UniProtKB/TrEMBL annotation:
This is Diaminopimelate decarboxylase. The modification N6-(pyridoxal phosphate)lysine is found at K35. The keyword Kinase does not apply. The lineage of its organism: Bacteria, Bacillati, Actinomycetota, Actinomycetes, Kitasatosporales. The active site is at C329. It comes from Actinacidiphila glaucinigra. SUPFAM superfamilies: Alanine racemase C-terminal domain-like (SSF50621), PLP-binding barrel (SSF51419). One of its GO terms (molecular function) is diaminopimelate decarboxylase activity. Residues 11-261 form the Orn/DAP/Arg decarboxylase 2 N-terminal domain. GO terms for biological process: lysine biosynthetic process via diaminopimelate. Keywords: Amino-acid biosynthesis, Lysine biosynthesis, Pyridoxal phosphate.
Length: 402
């Protein structure tokens, strides 16, 4: 089983993103949410395309630095930053968004009086509601992220917090990932924009210079079509919030899935094909270890499955209802249940498209299954290069304390 990444597709997505938000007089910094594809060569490629890194852990920061992403294009978000992580971010001069009042209090002790070497902001939860996947919805009434703006007294508290801290110059919001409609995303950005206006009016100056609007553009998993696309989102924002693009604010984005999902494919061999209780079952090597969300929440994360022969050619033949199972030792390890496909047999291949984000790059170590190799391809031919080699059993044993 391998992960495949269409590098030209990633470059094209980055170009679409840049073009969609490009506005004369507006400084836009695009960062890539590293959690979506935590592979150094992918971060390096995106960095070459002018897309920095949004990191949410020391590990993600280390990957971004290893990829050579310039500190000025790195943003640190995370709801659980330790004092050491805050210190490191300040020393490196990377932007960071505090999550809550306690984190701001820690920054009070760390930021030298009157100055800040790094751009600092506060994450707010606009509480505009959930999208279709609860676990991906970060702007619910009780979400764990940011300062909940609609809670009593919260807006006044935030305005005061900014007035007391001249070094707070950014405001951050991220309404959710996958399943959040554009209108809800725009409503979240509106809340942050209106709050920035209020802070700046209260301060009598442009204290908030930068709005970080997060990521979250959903991906279409049902076909090859890219929708809604960066252009649709940027246009929706322009229509709803003209002031966002009038040059008074610099913008930061943090898209993850929408930059890489459609460029990725998992390719796995069918080891056995069997039947049970009248159901055809193809046992493959791609299961919960690489398609974790699909296996544990199949309703929210359905994937297409392409049935291919051993040489990778599409299979034809009458569709047969079958399960496409993974190698993990639990019954629910299915990437597709009761799916109609040409009958898969021993030695065939299955391809799982749209898996460039949060799939093969976000491995789940169940059953000590090793991380698969990830190969990038580009150009006519195409030319392949290894982005991450497969984990060896020796590495796996060492990692497991052996
Ligand atoms: C703060 C923040 N920014 C950006 C993202 C990226 O979201 P997506 O991959 O849906 O674009 C996430 C995802 O969890 C996030 O939490």
């Amino acid at each position: 089983m391998v992960g495949l990444l269409d590098l030209d597709g990633v470059r094209a997505a980055a170009a679409d993103l840049r073009a969609a938000f490009a506005t004369p007089g507006v400084e836009v910094t695009h960062t890539f949410a590293v959690k979506a594809a935590s592979l150094v060569p992918v971060l390096r490629l995106l960095s070459e395309e002018g897309v920095g890194a949004e990191v949410a852990s020391p590990g993600e920061l280390a990957l971004a630095r290893a990829a050579g992403v310039p500190p000025g294009r790195i943003v640190l978000d995370s709801p659980a930053k330790t004092p050491d992580e805050l210190r490191e971010a300040l020393a490196l001069g990377i932007a960071l968004n505090a999550d809550n009042p306690q984190e701001l209090a820690r920054l009070d002790r760390l930021v030298p009086p009157g100055t800040a070497a790094a751009p600092l902001g506060l994450r707010v939860n606009p509480q505009v509601g959930a999208g279709s996947i609860g676990a991906m919805s970060t702007a619910t009434a009780t979400s764990k992220f940011g300062v909940a703006l609609r809670d009593e007294g919260a807006v006044d508290w935030v305005v005061r917090a900014y007035l007391d801290r001249p070094w707070l110059t950014r405001l951050h919001t991220h309404t959710g990932s996958q399943g959040v409609p554009l209108e809800l995303m725009a409503a979240g950005v509106r809340a942050a924009y209106e709050l920035a206006e209020r802070i700046n009016t209260a301060a009598g100056r442009r204290q908030v210079t930068t709005l970080d609007i997060g990521g979250g553009l959903p991906v279409n998993f049902a076909s090859d079509e890219v929708r809604p696309g960066f252009r649709a989102y940027a246009d929706a924002l322009r229509a709803a919030l003209p002031g966002l693009f009038d040059g008074r604010y610099a913008l930061v984005t943090e898209f993850g899935r929408s930059l890489v999902a459609k460029a990725g494919t998992i390719l796995a061999r069918v080891e056995y094909a069997k039947t049970a209780g009248g159901r055809a079952i193809a046992v493959t090597h791609a299961g919960a270890q690489v398609a974790t969300r699909t296996v544990f929440a199949p309703g929210a994360w359905p994937l297409r499955v392409l049935a291919l022969d051993p040489k990778g050619r599409p299979k034809d033949g009458e569709p047969v209802v079958q399960d496409v199972a993974g190698p993990c030792c639990f019954a629910g390890d299915l990437v597709a249940a009761a799916r109609e496909l040409p009958l898969l047999t021993e030695g065939d291949l299955v391809a799982l498209p749209d898996t460039g984000a949060y799939y093969f790059s976000t491995h789940f170590a169940y059953n000590s299954l090793p991380r698969p190799a990830v190969h990038g391809y580009s150009g006519p031919g195409p030319a392949f290069r290894t982005l991450r080699r497969a984990q060896t059993l020796e590495e796996l044993v060492r990692e497991s304390g052996g």
